[in-house]
Design goal:
Elements lengths: L1 E5 L6 H29 L1 H5 L4 E2 H8 L3 H19 L4 E8 L5 E9 L1 H7 L5 H34 L9 H7 L4 H10 L3 E4 L2 E4 L9 E9 L5 E9 L1 H11 L5
Helix pairs in contact: 1-6, 3-4, 7-8
Length: 248
C-alpha cells in the first residue's frame, strides 16, 4: 500500500516523527483490513480438499485402471452404508484414431476415501498412496499461502494516485532517471540527503511535490518502509517551464 501526503514536510524531528507515526498507523489499519478481506474471501479456497483420481491410483500402484475400478465398486456399498454417500464418478472423453470418441469412467476420491480403498492393496501400494497424499496436501498449503500473500502484497503495495515518481517524470522529458535527477540538482531544484531526494527550501510549500511512503512486505513477512519524493501535476508544470520541454 502507498500513502501519499501532500504539503510541506519540514520543521524538525517532531513533525517528522508525527508524520511517520501517522503513516504507520494508517498502513497497519489498511494492512489488517486487507488481510481480513482476503482471509474471508479465500476461506473457501483454504477448505478445498485435494482429490486423487482412480487413474492416478492405478499409476501409483502399478495396477490396471479397470482393476482399480472393480475394487472401488466392490467396496462402495459398505462405504455408502457407513458414510451415506457414494464415491464421485466422473468420465473423460478420448479421441479415437478413426475420428470417434470414447468415454472413460473414473473416480475422484478424497484422502479418506483413497485410504479406505487402499486397505485392499499391499503394503508397498499403500505406502505410495500415503506419500503421494502428503505431497498433495503440502502443495495445496503452499499454493494457497502464496496466492493469499501475493494478493495481499499487491494491495498493500498499490501505487498512489495523482503523483508521479522521478522515473515517470523523467520519461516525459525523454531522460533517464539518473540524468533527470542530476539536472535538477545542478539547477538547484533538489538536493540529496540520507539517500533521498528533497526539494530545496525555496520551493517548499508550493504543492510541487508530495512525500510517498511505500511499505512492502516480503513473502517472509519482513516489512520494508521507503519514503521518497514524488511530483504533483503542479510540479510537472513547473519542471516543464524550467526545462523547456513541451511534454503536455
Amino acid at each position: 500500500m502507498v500513502v501519499t501526503t501532500n504539503g510541506r514536510l519540514k520543521g524538525g524531528d517532531v513533525k517528522q516523527h508525527y508524520y511517520i507515526m501517522e503513516q504507520t498507523t494508517t498502513i497497519e489499519v489498511k494492512m489488517n483490513n486487507c488481510f481480513n478481506h482476503f482471509n474471508n474471501e479465500n476461506s473457501n479456497a483454504a477448505d478445498v480438499e485435494p482429490r486423487m483420481t482412480s487413474l492416478e491410483i492405478a499409476t501409483l500402484t502399478g495396477k490396471q485402471h479397470n482393476d482399480v475400478l472393480k475394487a472401488i465398486r466392490k467396496m462402495e456399498p459398505a462405504w455408502e452404508k457407513v458414510q451415506g454417500g457414494k464415491f464421485s464418478l466422473l468420465q473423460k472423453t478420448y479421441d479415437l484414431p478413426n475420428g470417434g470418441k470414447k468415454l472413460m469412467p473414473y473416480y475422484s476420491l478424497t484422502k479418506i476415501e483413497t485410504l479406505y480403498i487402499a486397505t485392499k492393496f499391499n503394503d508397498e501400494a499403500r505406502a505410495r498412496l500415503v506419500i503421494r497424499w502428503e505431497e498433495l496436501e503440502r502443495n495445496l498449503r503452499r499454493d494457497v499461502s502464496r496466492t493469499d500473500v501475493s494478493r495481499v502484497l499487491s494491495a498493500l503495495n498499490e501505487e498512489a494516485e495523482d503523483t508521479l515518481t522521478a522515473t515517470q517524470v523523467a520519461k516525459t522529458f525523454n531522460m533517464t532517471v539518473y540524468d533527470f535527477n542530476m539536472v535538477l540538482r545542478d539547477m538547484g531544484i533538489q538536493y540529496r540527503r540520507h539517500g533521498r531526494w528533497n526539494l530545496v527550501d525555496e520551493l517548499q510549500g508550493r504543492g510541487l511535490t508530495a512525500m510517498r511512503t511505500h511499505v512492502s512486505y516480503s513473502l517472509k513477512g519482513e516489512r520494508k518502509v521507503k519514503n521518497y519524493m514524488t511530483w504533483t501535476m503542479a510540479g510537472l508544470h513547473y519542471l516543464n517551464s524550467k526545462l523547456g520541454y513541451p511534454n503536455f
